[in-house]
Amino acid sequence: MGLHAATIKGDFPILDRMIDGKRLVFLDSANSTQKPRQVIEAMAEFMRNSYAPVNRSSYRLAAESNDCYERARAVTQRFINARKPHEVIFTKNATEALNLVVQSWGRANLSSEDAVLLTHMEHHANIVPWQMLQAEKGFAIRWVPLTTDGQLDLTDLDRLLVGVKAFSFTAMSNVLGTITPVRRLTDAAHAAGAIAIVDGCQYVPHHATDVSAMGADFLAFSSHKLCGPTGIGVLWAHEALLDAMPPFLGGGNMISDVRLDGFDTAELPAKFEAGTPPIIEAVGLGAAIEYLESIGMAEIRQHEMDLTVYALNLLKDRFGDDIHIYGPDNIEVRGATLSFDFRGIHPHDVSQVLDQTNVCVRAGHHCAKPLMRILGTPATTRASFYIYNDESDADALADALDSATDIFGF
Amino acid sequence: MPGLEDLYREIILDHYRTPRNRGALETPPAVVAQGHNPLCGDEIQVYLLVEDGVVRDVKVGGQGCSISQSSASMMTQAVKGKPVADAHRVLDAFRRMMGLDVDGEPEDVNLGDLEALQGVVKFPVRIKCATLAWTTLAQAMDEAGA
């Protein structure tokens, strides 16, 4: 049974909002998703009734708050099929999760003799942290190139992996919508003696995720892209890896002892959660995950595949050669993220016109400038669909694009 | 389209369709400055030739949206052939029109066609588009010691 889009729309209060008398057509979920009342209410209820600091105070309310925080960790663990709750580290966002891997694992394990493998479709968050450490350590960064239809070109993968210690890649491109063959990549990494780091920001909100089936060593993703609040992200890694790594941020909560001459780190997960964590946000993340699970991740993926096919066909039928949609046509290897060029009209102008009918899309480089250079364009317009979108939203996008032609069709 | 008349004025679209002073100048004697709009990835180059205290020539390369390209086009017309001091006055007046902080007392400067860009102020995310060429011109003037 498919998901019921109208019911889901009704769960998102912001979608009732009218601007200039017109409904909101939110097609920017690859950027950040809207929040259902289940998440809003869980966070409000927690603040009203159960909020207290975690991990330090001994009164009953603090214990209750602690339970709520740790429950969110257990929900997250189950969601990605991790073996142990303390393999789930809460960070500020996915960017911080990737910086944690680079600054802790990378700093301890990489030298000028080594190489790191990335891909041409990475988000800046999976490029810049490596470049920052590279400036200090002098290791090489290699790149998996792309095929003409926007998939990873794996022809030379084994050669690229020779001498590589870490292969870090996205499970789904935030620009092209391409879903990468995660298991094949993690297997290739391991065969070459490298660890595999998976950027799951665009993948996890849309697919059932199983870290064991992925074969990943690290997985990073964010809460705000899966209907949860901003301010919290997740890093998952095998316990043994996390135990062997030095801490990332120092401060309260991450220590077992501090002396004038040094400190001892706390056990996992506290070791990587310095300072007061995002407690309220964790409760929201847990509620968001449970909300998605109540719909069903398989149903979510099916809904997005159906909607993507509908939108691709609609746009191509309506606009023919006037629209160029990036990324693969094969729905099996693409998500509901559609980056496109429309009649050569600059994406900023396209999005400005779409905004007049409250069609919210992103225009720009999508934090993937190396990819944009390879695509040969400074910017694209990107429409990205999620559980609360349906065919009427794709129709609204197509209608709004007609208006762009009215102004810029010269 | 209702609501967008203030932004996409005909003169703006005209400069976008047929941008003036597009291209490059030989460096040296000209200088070139590179400008980026971090929001959208637009990149432009402003080439500037200053001789005897006068902006002899100015050209713009790169790409961008209708607002950034038309603003760049109108900018070249507004400063080309002008004494450097006048070019600075236009630069300051334009930035003030865009709501940016500029040192010194405002002067009465006729911005001509550039007044058409006033509507951009109502669309705050586009101000960076409109000012990209100007910020880059200011860098080029610095570079030229002008």
From TrEMBL, chain A:
Alphabetized GO MF terms: cysteine desulfurase activity; pyridoxal phosphate binding
Q: What is its EC number?
A: 2.8.1.7
| Keywords (A to Z) from UniProt | Pyridoxal phosphate, Transferase
Q: Which SUPFAM superfamilies match?
A: PLP-dependent transferases (SSF53383)
Gene3D superfamilies, per this entry?
Aspartate Aminotransferase, domain 1, Type I PLP-dependent aspartate aminotransferase-like (Major domain)
Q: Which InterPro entries match?
A: Aminotrans_V_dom (IPR000192), Cys_dSase_SufS (IPR010970), PyrdxlP-dep_Trfase (IPR015424), PyrdxlP-dep_Trfase_major (IPR015421), PyrdxlP-dep_Trfase_small (IPR015422)
Report the PANTHER family cross-referenced here. Answer: CYSTEINE DESULFURASE, CYSTEINE DESULFURASE 1, CHLOROPLASTIC
Q: What's the protein called, per UniProt? A: cysteine desulfurase
Automatic annotation (TrEMBL), chain B:
Which stretches make up the NIF system FeS cluster assembly NifU N-terminal domain?
8-129
For this entry, list what GO says about its biological process: iron-sulfur cluster assembly
Question: For this protein, what is any one GO molecular function term?
Answer: iron-sulfur cluster binding
Concerning Pfam families, the annotation shows:
NifU_N
Please identify the protein, giving its name as recorded.
Unannotated protein
From which source organism is this entry? freshwater metagenome
